[in-house]
Write a structure and sequence with these properties.
The complex is a heterodimer of chains A (291) and B (666). Chain A has helices spanning 11-18, 21-40, 42-53, 63-93, 98-104, 115-123, 127-133, 136-145, 179-187, 209-217, 232-235, 276-286; strands at 110-113, 150-156, 159-165, 171-178, 192-193, 206-208, 240-251, 254-263, 266-275. By secondary structure, chain A is an alpha+beta fold. The chains are: A alpha+beta (291), B alpha+beta (666).
Chain lengths: 291, 666
Amino acid sequence: MIHLWHEPFDFSEWLKRTFSFLNIAVFIITALFIFSEFRFDWMERLLGTYLSSTNSARPETGAIWETGKQAFNAREYLDDIVSKKEDARANVHDASSFSFLSANLAPGEWVTLEKNQFKALYLSIEKSAAEKIMEPAQLVWLLKGSHLDRIFCEGVSDGIKIYFLDSDNRVIKQMEFKKEDILKIEAGEKPLPGKLDQMSGFSGRIYPAQNFFDALFKLPKDILPDLMDNPQSLLEQEGEIIRVGVWNEVKDGYIRLGFEFEKNDGFQVVFVKGREWAIWQLSLNLKGTGE
Amino acid sequence: MKAFFRILPFIRFVLFSGLILVSLGSVFGMCLVFYMADDLPKLPSPLSRIIETPQTQILASNGQLMISLGERESIPLDMVSQDFINAIIATEDHRFYEHRGINKLRTLKGLYITLTKTGKVQGASTITQQLAKNLFFSFEQTFTRKFKELLVALQIEASSTKQEILHAYINQIYFGAGAQGIEKAANVFFGKSSLDLTLSEAALLAGLPKSPANYNPYRHYDRALERRNIVLRRMVQVGFISDLQAQKARLEMPELHQKQSDSRTGNYFIDALISELIQRYGEDVVYHGGIKVFSTVDPRLQTYAQNALKNGLKTLDDLMGIKSDASERPQGALVSIEVGTGAVKALVGGRDYHQSEYNRAMKSRRQPGSGFKPFLYYTAFKNLEYHPATLMTDKPVVISVKGSPDWMPKNFNKIFEGDMILKKALIDSVNTVAAQLVEKTGPASVNQTARICGIKSPLADVYSVALGTSGVTPFEMASAYAVFATMGVRHEPFLFKRVEDAFGRVIFEHIIQEKRVLESGMVYQVVDMMKSVIDQGSGSSIRKMGFDRPAAGKTGTTDGYNDAWFTGFTPTLSTCVWTGFDKKTRLVDTNHAGITGGRSAAPIWADFMRNALKSDPERDFPIPDNIRFETVDVRTGCNLDLEEDNARGLTVALKSDQHLCEKEEE
């Protein structure tokens, strides 16, 4: 059924249509809607409550969460620095050698060494080798006579740096060692397989063991300790000394002596050092007795 | 009537269409809410938890706290002055207790103005909306951002009480001058707790968040007072205070906390330190890591430095006839370094931190003029085997430069004095002699000397570099001169000695390393010459000011009087002072005469050093074993005959293998 709409013909028709039930209902509902919203803010409450219900699932974004994240990042970064340092400290706490120290300190890592720990490391090295680290007199001065407060050890790309610091963090003495140098110092001079005449440095200065010791005991007794800085290494060897060679170079006031041992599995040369002037005295006695 | 009947259908159509549109809009709005809800930031619970961040502390060398960074001091509402709470509510959102997150009428009005008036954006944010914006959103003005901010505000209102919202708001709001939160602001601006704020102070603070930079009372006190009066008026309108109370408050002139007056970060030194920390650890650690930084600055020396520079520049203003309200006034910088360690003890980068935060002490590369000559003289001693009594001739010099016009340096006084020994040439800062020296040594070797002393700015390998034509910073000059003070031993300058994390674990320690870079005998010879610069040369104003300790130094003034320097040292402290305009403007007095480093920078140096060293015992520079002293005729370089004019005599320091009367061959 089709109703054709037409314009009202008179005023009463207009009024009737204007105040129709539908119009009044729409008006009242709209007015109520607006009034109640302004009065009770129900739309805000509704939305707020809805958003609160979804809160836990939403992302932690925005300035304040960023600040929180920055604080977290900062904490992580600092913890990382500290833990690396503590790891390094734990690693070297029981260090028994300088080579262990240098192997366990990565570049940029640093630890503080106790005075006693440094002393123990120093004394663990054979005397003549330890002198390459530091003169004993200087160590005595540092540990007992200076204003030394701490010993600071830092890893560098190819070794370690050791700083002796006073209480103001001022460097009293500074040393730097390459890893390979430390290894060499600590290892001392290792025995070499072979005979003395295979080593060019002893050429023309090789003596039978008997001649050597005869010449040696002709020297005054007070010279003898300066002839061999480390007789221990000779005593530790198996076999007999066959020949002794005197090196043809002086280094740091010392001259090397090579002792040729005959062992079951062949020959071996063990090196020790003697003071230059003592070896010179010995050489006078050895003159003409060589091979 | 008929006409009315005719348009009635149209009105009805509009009303119903509007209703439909509003309904559709509501549906769309709801969809938008659902769509955006997923993307909204999560609200922390409780709201105040978000305020907690650890603070980084920077301490002076005596352990005094200089500044806390990233500090959020959260205090409960009942520990805040009620006047402040009333003031902030009256100003920012007087219907705060009535709405549920938005002020609908203000929002509609704001929307209407924004949509109808081109280029005008009307804000209508409630305190809750501002809180939402500050906590989660950028300051970018978009409808999406505004809508999201509105939604978060609704959620904040739904999930928190008004007291909780207000608590979070006043504790995170930014007041400027590095003050975040009301407690910090009360402390920074008035040196008191927020509970003790007077009505006038509270109103002043409540006015700041609208534009912290514009109303910063340290910079714009008048504007801040005007804004305070607006706040007081609002408080009367809202009914928080009476007219009488407002009138009384308006008459008050709140006294700002002077200790903090140099504070955004603290001062130029702190700026430089923070910048170095950021470079080393990044911003997160510096601002949010809660680290403790033990700096090198001595607060006593820092105060002396600030005062010396301030007073010295005021004197310079007077000398130049510049009024205090002039738009362009000369600037200055002062850096003082402990020579035995490299620790920076005082650093001021300008005359007023609030007017310009540009740190001239560390960033401004200016020509040092004759201040560069000590590097030249040392190089000549080393490379040419010259000594202070070597005879040279002050005469017109023309040095041909490949590919450029000939270089013809002139003396400041435009006079050529003939034969003179090198010591005399340095005391009188004779440019022609310096030019002859650099011609022989070559500029590269002079630059090399400067480099090993610590000059890091680019230095051009040109002859004029010996007269200080390559820009350097006052920081570099103080550090490089310290090498002379230590007889050739270089210490890297540093701003902080230790950094700890929040638990006191050491993150960084500065180790003071020494490196001999110059030969002590030759350094002593240069130092002895520089001592005479102060005793009888271009830096003699220092003695006139009553500074009578053993000291050495050199003035520096550039050709156009654009820069005036004095860098000098005692055996303990090396200090550099620079004065000049930021722009290329001449320093001239009221008689149009150029102002030299001896007139502008040296008095500042003397003022600072006199105070800085007043409690230290007096010490002279150590004399190396191979140094002897001879009195020579400045015109011949030979021993002075006692019967001759004593005024021509000058004592020179010679090394044991150096001899007199050896005229430098042409």
